[in-house]
Hints:
Layout: E1 9-10, H1 21-36, E2 44-47, E3 53-56, H2 58-65, H3 69-77, H4 79-88, E4 94-97, E5 104-112, E6 118-126, E7 132-139
Parallel strand pairs: 1-5, 3-7
Antiparallel strand pairs: 2-3, 4-5, 5-6, 6-7
Helix pairs in contact: 1-3
Amino acid sequence: MNKNSREIFRSKFNQIAGSNFSEVSRKANSIFKQIKSKSKRRPYVRSAYFNKDKVFISQFLSHTFEKNWRDATRRLKLFECAIDLIKNNHTNPVSKDDSNDTQFILHRFSGLTKQRELFYVQIKENKKTGEKIFLSAFLG
């Protein structure tokens, strides 16, 4: 399918406001805690695209904190938009096998924030177990 003809999910949220890491991470952590409080084990959201399968989200935060502060702040600003996309998106992603590990498929979803900024969300799926993990969110 041609990349330009794809539909793009429109989030109802803007990026998280804030100019530094501590401001943005405070808001992102409050959103994460709300999601985490609904589960006794690993925090997850149910994905409309994957027929209401669970997408585990805790690896996103650990992956983000490995980045430098500026990059981590940019990615955390998209956390609320990314969760909205995972929960409500029905558009097809660009999917390919993970080049580092062939037992995984990487799904890249496109979205627009409320202010019409293009962003991407990456979800890794285990081929054997079907487990899906929210890896990353970044501006396009």
